[in-house]
Amino acid sequence: MSRDYIFQYSVDFAVAVALNQACRPEFKVYQEQVIANARVMSKVLQERGYKVVTGGTDNHLILVDLRPNGIDGARAEKVLEDVSIALNKNTCPGDKSALKPSGLRIGSPALTSRNMKEKDFEQVSEFIHQGLVITKEAMEGCGPLLKDFKAKIITDEKIKQKIAALKADVEKFAIQFPMPGLDGW
Q1: Staple partner for 167: which of 14, 26, 83, 143, CB 3.0–4.6 Å?
Q2: What does the H/E/C string look like for the chain?
Q3: Is the pLDDT score of 160 beyond 90?
C-alpha cells in the first residue's frame, strides 16, 4: 500500500466520521450554542466599548479591532495569554503590517465544548475586558517595541500583581468546566 493511498484513506475516514457527527441532532444543538455564545461575547465586548469588525457575528468567530482603544493585538494577546486566556492577534481591515496587528480573533467552540453557556460567556468577556484594561495600563510609559512591553509586564510589580490576580480568577472560573476527553482534570 502506498503512502499516498494511506494518507487519502485516513482523510476519507476522518471526513466520514465528521459527516456522521454533523448529521446527529446533538451536533446541531452544539453548533447553535457555539453561535449563541459568540453573539453574546460580541454584544458584551461592544457594550464595554470595543469595536467588533462587521458589528457582530453570524458564526463562531469574533474579530475585535482594538485601535479605537489605543491597544494592539500583539500586546493584548500576550497579557491575555499570561492570564490563561487563549486567543489570537489578527490583522484588521486597514492595518499597515501583519507584524503589528490591531485586532484579536476570538472563537467560541473550545469553551462551548466545555459546556459553557451564554451567561458563562458574559463572564469570559469580562475577563477579556479586564485583561485589555491591564494591557492599556502596561502600555503607558512603555517603549514602542513589543520586547519593551514584554519586559515591563514581568518587571513592573503593580502590573505583575494585576496579571496574577486576573489569572487566579480566570483559572478558578475555568475549573468548573471540565475539558472534554481529560477525565479527572
Answers
A1: 83
A2: CCHHHHHHHHHHHHHHHHHHHHCCHHHHHHHHHHHHHHHHHHHHHHHCCCEEHHHCCCCCEEEEECHHHCCCHHHHHHHHHHCCCCCEEECCCCCCCCCCCCEEEEECHHHHHCCCCHHHHHHHHHHHHHHHHHHHHHHCCCCCCHHHHHHHHHHCHHHHHHHHHHHHHHHHHHCCCCCCCCCCC
A3: yes
Q: All 3 cell numbers of residue 157?
A: 510589580
The dihedral built from the CA positions of residue 101, 99, 135 and 172, taken in this order, carries a sign that is positive
Given a cut of 60, is residue 185 above it in pLDDT? Answer: no
d(CA 127, CA 166): 7
Instruction: For residue 49, give the amino acid letter.
Output: G
- Cα 46 from chain centroid? 15
The domain segmentation of the chain, as residue ranges, is 7-174
Predicted model pTM: 0.91
pLDDT at residue 91 greater than cutoff 90: yes
